[in-house]
Amino acid sequence: MLVGFILLMLCQLLGEILVVVSGLPVPGPVAGMLILLIGLMIHGEVPESLRLPAEGLIRHLSLLFIPAGVGLLVHLERLAQEWWILAISLVVSTLVTLVITAWLMQRLQKKQDGAEVMHGDQ
């Protein structure tokens, strides 16, 4: 379990270093998650030593939102002034996500249907 937790922290550290060195406009933890994803894709599966600490963190995920909630309270006045910008960005990003998800599902469904037809002919 300790090995998996160290691996998670190492990926986050590598993500932070990558962002600082490259100047990417992406948070370090996001870059770290991409590094972890690439590593898992290469490995082909999630090792047990990584699954256990990840499940433990997910189990307590709600605690990680407390700092964000406090940040919202600190900037409540600014949020009250600029609420419409947030509302528009939430609606637009939700619509873009829905459109891309629907498009991707259609493509994957066509691909799956084509694969089933090919396997049925053999």
Automatic annotation (TrEMBL):
Pfam family membership, one: LrgA
An example Gene Ontology CC term for this record: plasma membrane
InterPro entries xrefs: LrgA/CidA
Keywords assigned: Cell membrane, Membrane, Transmembrane, Transmembrane helix
Protein topology in the membrane: Multi-pass membrane protein
Record-annotated membrane-spanning stretches: 25-44, 56-77, 83-104
Cellular localization per UniProt: Cell membrane
Domain of life the protein comes from: Bacteria
PANTHER family: HOLIN-LIKE PROTEIN CIDA (PTHR33931:SF2), HOLIN-LIKE PROTEIN CIDA-RELATED (PTHR33931)
Name of the featured protein: CidA/LrgA family protein
Source organism of the structure: Nitrincola tapanii
